[in-house]
């Protein structure tokens, strides 16, 4: 059995724990091992926090969004300011995939090329840095991570993890 859901959330700090609780509730109901659920919820929290902090406000100079529906983010023109982001989760078979997409300026070119094997590369933030640790944390908690840009439309962080199930799981893979 598969579970799929998608949330469109405002770029406000209060949306981050909402997404996290939604994921944890889904995982608990399905019967996913609590340690796996916790890892994925922390990774989701980091991805959502990045979307809230960096996922918009790249308005083209002189452009105004007067009269625009603030929930119509996916229909906006490239370069328009955005007040929301999207979280999508798939629990399918033995894997969970989560994707967080915003409509901000996107990742710098070097950020999209990250890989866990290159963690000690000088382009990554030092352990004491204030910014940049969230993406490293996502890489450590998930089995596979992909950072990409939607041309002119923002950044996407997708990550997945192999699931472990509780013995009493409702949706255990057969």
Structural write-up:
It contains three helices and five strands. By secondary structure, the protein is α+β, with helices and mostly antiparallel strands. It has a five-stranded antiparallel β-sheet with strand order 1-2-3-5-4, covered by helices on one side. It is globular.
Would you kindly provide a brief summary of this structure?
This protein is of the alpha+beta class and 174 residues long. Helix content is 26%, strand content 24%.
Helix and strand layout, with pairings?
Layout: E1 2-10, H1 15-30, H2 34-54, E2 84-92, E3 95-101, H3 133-141, E4 144-150, E5 154-162
Antiparallel strand pairs: 1-2, 2-3, 3-5, 4-5
How confident is the prediction overall: mean pLDDT? 79
Numbering strands along the chain, what is their spatial order in the largest sheet? Answer: 1-2-3-5-4
Radius of gyration based on Cα positions:
17 Å
SS-based structural class? alpha+beta
Key terms:
single chain, 174 residues, five-stranded antiparallel sheet
């Amino acid at each position: 059995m598969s579970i799929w859901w998608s949330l469109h959330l405002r770029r406000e700090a209060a949306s981050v724990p909402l997404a996290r609780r939604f994921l944890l509730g889904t995982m608990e109901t399905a019967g996913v091992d609590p340690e796996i659920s916790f890892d994925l919820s922390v990774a989701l929290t980091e991805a959502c926090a990045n979307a809230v902090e960096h996922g918009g406000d790249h308005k083209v100079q002189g452009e105004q969004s007067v009269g625009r529906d603030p929930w119509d983010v996916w229909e906006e023109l490239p370069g328009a300011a955005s007040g929301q982001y999207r979280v999508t989760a798939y629990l399918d078979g033995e894997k969970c995939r989560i994707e967080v997409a915003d409509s901000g300026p996107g990742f710098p070119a070097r950020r999209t090329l990250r890989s866990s094997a290159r963690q000690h590369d000088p382009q990554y933030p030092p352990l004491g840095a204030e910014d940049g640790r969230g993406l490293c944390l996502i890489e450590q908690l998930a089995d596979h991570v992909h950072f990409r840009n939607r041309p002119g439309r923002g950044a996407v962080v997708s990550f997945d993890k192999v699931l472990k199930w509780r013995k009493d799981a409702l949706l255990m893979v057969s």
